[in-house]
Records
---
Amino acid sequence: MKKIEAFIRHEAFEPIRAELLDKGFPSLSIIEAKGSGRQKGIVEKYRGSTLTVNVRPKLKVEVVVEDKDKGLVVETILKHARTGEVGDGKIFVIPVEEAIRIRTGEGGEPVLQVHEDSEIPT
Amino acid sequence: MRKKMGLAVFLAALAALVLPAVAGAASLTEVAGTVEEKASELNMVWVAVATALVFLMQAGFMFLEIGFSRQKNAGTGVAKILINLAIVTLAWWAIGYGVAEGGGNDFFGDSGFFFHFDQTVAGEAVTGETSMLMLYGLAFCAVSLAIVWGTTLERIKFGVYVIYAIVFGAVIYPLIAHAVWGGGLLSDIGGKPVMDFAGSSVVHLTGAVGALSALLLLGPRKGKYDANGKPRVIPGHSMPLVGLGVIILWIGWFGFNGGSTFETGESFFGEVMLNTQLAAAAGVIGASLAVYLKSRTLDVGMAGNGAIAGLVGITAPSGFVEYWAAPIIGLVAGLLVVYAVLAIDKLLDDPVGALSAHGLAGIWGTLAVGIFASPRLIVEGAGPGIWYGIFGDQSLSNAFGQLGVQGLAVAFTFVVVLVISLATFAIIKATIGLRVSDDEEEAGLDISSHGMYGYPEQFIPQPEYSTGLPGTLGSGAAVPAPAPAQMTATETR
């Protein structure tokens, strides 16, 4: 299992989410992140003085998938998150030891699988 | 004065009209008496409207200061306004009104304490009219007090409000009001009265000097100045709240200046209100222009400060100047406020710009009377503005005499308020202390002084919306508990 952590622009999230869902990966988390990279901070002006904010808001998307699906998820993120400008973000891939579904307590690969429609309560 | 003349002519004309209609039913004296009574009542209705508008300004100060504070200090702004208004009301009723308006000597009044009926104030029996004017005076005193706390946001101990509000409402503001408006020292300087129509000095400079005194002993907010003493920006959390505060103050100012006519004769209040509007507008333009030239951005907060500065600037001259002068007064106040805020910020941490918008603009407004006061409108004994000496046919020495008197009012207000305020705050600092602890300041006054947050959701995580589906938290019975074996599996890490 791999965890894919991607720091992306906010506006890139919606197309990524839609395509991952389409391809059978509905489970993901996002976290509002602030960070710095090659992109400079924001210079705010307040009452005639300047205020430099050295970190910029980004979204951190976390998706845990089986090893074989890693490439597909990374490609999807690259496809939608890349503008070619400084500040597009980064992707990190991290090994994951274990996954447990809290509702049932079951562990292992079933946790990462897509639900059958019949399993999803309406 | 022209206004009194107008009333007499009006009464005579009305009596002449009414007389034939009621011939035989009432004598001329009776009719004239009734008309005079009704005119007085109409005057008080206008003062009542103005009083309500001036009290509305408390909401303006509240939003302005909360908007310029951080989220962790939002709730305390509400408590501050309510407690201050409550205490100053009782202090004014018990002592302050008597000191300000109760006749007496050059320095303080000596009647009207614990204001009640069957009492004479400055030699006149208390009536409904006296009560109305007493309440109007209170509204002014409360505005002046609200200005004081602008410099003290986000770090002052709540108890300080209670003590200083008593001293301010009973002594400080009443002394200044008595000197200028209550027949005291400044109402006759070598035959010339200070002309401060609605209180650029009496109300605004007084409040700002109180604010300066508090700030000198309180010091800046944590993190306002870096290790080299360079100021850092601590942005306020809500420009929409600042804007709402400014607009409410702006509207309230029509009662502040307009009501200071105390009468409806010749609808003179219309002139005063138009002057007020012209100066406020010019203040916004002046400040926006200055901040744009300085930083190439149209700063939201500064535009608001400009409106306030324009309004403070026109407060003293509003009943004494012609329409052409009002925008000049407002524009200068607006330009002044931006440069003053930036200069003061290097030394003193004044989060809302009270020292600039109320203090310097208040001084400017008081002096502007000596520059622009129209011979048509000045009070008896006073000199016109020097403008009319230079470009008109008025005596220049007389005009400069008046400007000097206006300067004296500024100096008197500054010294008296500074001395008493510094003494009061020094005593508070030596006893209960002025400042909250570092920890309390970091956490914010909402939680540390009031035990609650102004915006709880910003600080305490909220649960997600429960959809009512089986399996949501708290409805565990609908879902079988996970098997112990599986739980154990999760614990082996």
---
Amino acid sequence: MDAALSEFSKWLAATSLSHTIQTVGWIIPALQTIHILSVAVVFSSAVLVDFRIWRLFERDVPLPQVTRRFLPTIWPVLLILLLTGSLLIIGEPRRSLLNATFYLKMALLVVAILLTAALQASIASSPAFWEKDQSRRTAGKVPANILAKILATASILVWCGILFAGRWIAYTQAG
Amino acid sequence: MSQFQDLIAYFEDSGLAESIRENDVLFPLIESAHVVAICLVVGSILVLDLRLLGLASIHRPVSRLTAAVLPVTWGAFAVAATSGFLLFISNATKYLENGYFVAKILLICAAGVNMIIFHGISAKDLPQWEKEPMPPLRARLAGVLSILLWIAVVACGRWIGFTMRELEQ
């Protein structure tokens, strides 16, 4: 597997597109800047909805409304991240493709995407479940509230994990 | 100026700065926290800027959106400033010689001035227009300026990494 990836990286690094990205000095920092700005949009959108579930943000607005304002933004911006991320890999294939941290980041990304899509769909289809029991403390209603907060916390942690792993790629790259 | 240099030297020679400099994990760890915090600062400010431009959250009154978003922004800014300070003292002299670092600090100050001007002068008649989907021109200008300044802050931050190669990448 490693040998195949190494061969693929070598082939990728020899393409003219990779050569351009490697030799024109401003391209990589510019791509990284667009990448981080897009991460800022996706991360903040997800985290603001998670904060809303914790009632730390816009508690005077119904959750489905907050979700509709913030979560749909994530999907088109993920395409920008895919594009800039791919170009960064083409420019320096070994930096990511031969780096375990990169695969950790991608695995966390899959979890984050599934979690966010599930939140978006679930809040839209059954808002009562998510808004239930904010003031009353009926024993039977507590679990739903706790489940919502667990999912919101998981979402925050997974997105933070993606950002940490992203920065860590620079420190764990193959020589 | 020499007093400033003394102060810089004091921080740079401290045990804390030395630990960040020498330890393999500490620098990336603080840097990661810095990136997370900056993402939240930039993303949450963008929510307000897009509202001022009449492009998003247009059914929310500006003052209520601001009251909801700014605690998140300031909380994240506190983390970003603290982590940024720790990264800075690990190699203060070299950072101060780096044009992108100086530009980043100045741009953050400019973003702050833009915010103060908007709150102090432009937004005096806020109650009259804050429920309108499309705010007046001066509010839209403040929004555009804020977006451009924060994009430049992030760009400078990334360029610092490429001009201080031995430290970060």
